[in-house]
Design a protein that fits this description.
It is a single chain. The protein is mainly α and 209 residues long. It has helices spanning 14-25, 29-51, 54-71, 81-105, 114-136, 138-143, 145-156, 161-168, 172-189, 193-208. It folds into two domains: 14-103, Orthogonal Bundle (Rna Polymerase Sigma Factor, Chain: A); 127-208, Arc Repressor Mutant, subunit A, CATH 1.10.10. It is built from ten helices and no strands. The longest helix is centred in the middle third of the chain and has 25 residues, at 81-105.
Length: 209
């Protein structure tokens, strides 16, 4: 999957943040404090898109900064810090949302197998996100019905690109172009939804591997 750029409302000076992150990864506590001051609002905003409640977003932010304090050296320097931070926040928010749902809905005695339980919760979350995506591209369907059909077949029904091309009697290159522009349209209109969906997909694929 192609690396995505950091989303809107990210801190403005990416180069400065990259430099601060590099220094913080080497143990510079002042640089880490500066990262926190400049990025914590951004972390909470991204988390809020997933967990919905401000108090949960604050919990996610605390978890994220706790992780960064011990693992910032894992930041890959070839990407922007805000791009990497976005993925860290999304993953932490997914984990927090799953734990919250399990606490609210599942009696303790019903959680006999934590791994399969997590898989089931992720699958349910993916199902909900697919419904939200289906609603999100209604505008795309009206404006570009063929692009919407490619998106629906490939991303919502898991049909491989080659089979989409065969079904719609289109060259594979044309299908890939339709997928690119349909994704671009949805990302512009719903900047967190598609990333969250792919993050869940990656988690599920990783568990199957």
């Amino acid at each position: 999957m192609a690396t995505k750029q950091a989303r809107t409302d990210s801190p403005a000076d990416d180069q400065q943040l990259d430099e601060l992150a590099a220094r913080a990864a080497q143990g510079d506590s002042a640089a880490f404090a500066a990262l926190y001051q400049q990025c914590n609002d951004y972390v909470r905003k991204v988390a809020l898109q997933v967990v919905r409640r401000p108090e949960d977003a604050e919990d996610v932010a605390q978890i994220v900064w706790g992780k960064l304090a011990g693992h910032l050296q894992q930041y890959p320097r070839e990407v922007r810090f805000t791009t990497w931070l976005y993925r860290v926040v999304i993953n932490a928010a997914i984990d927090h949302a799953r734990r919250g749902q399990a606490r609210r809905e599942a009696p303790l005695e019903a959680v006999a197998d934590a791994r399969s339980g997590n898989d089931q919760e992720l699958a349910l979350l993916r199902q909900r996100l697919r419904k939200e995506l289906a609603q999100a591209f209604e505008g795309l369907r009206r404006a570009h019905p063929l692009r919407a059909r490619c998106f629906e077949l490939h991303y919502l029904q898991d049909v491989p690109v080659g089979e989409v091309a065969a079904l719609l009697r289109l060259p594979e290159g044309t299908v890939k172009s339709h997928l690119y522009y349909s994704r671009k349209r949805i990302v512009e209109d719903h900047p967190v939804l598609l990333d969250l969906y792919f993050a869940v997909e990656e988690r599920l694929e990783g568990r199957r591997a």
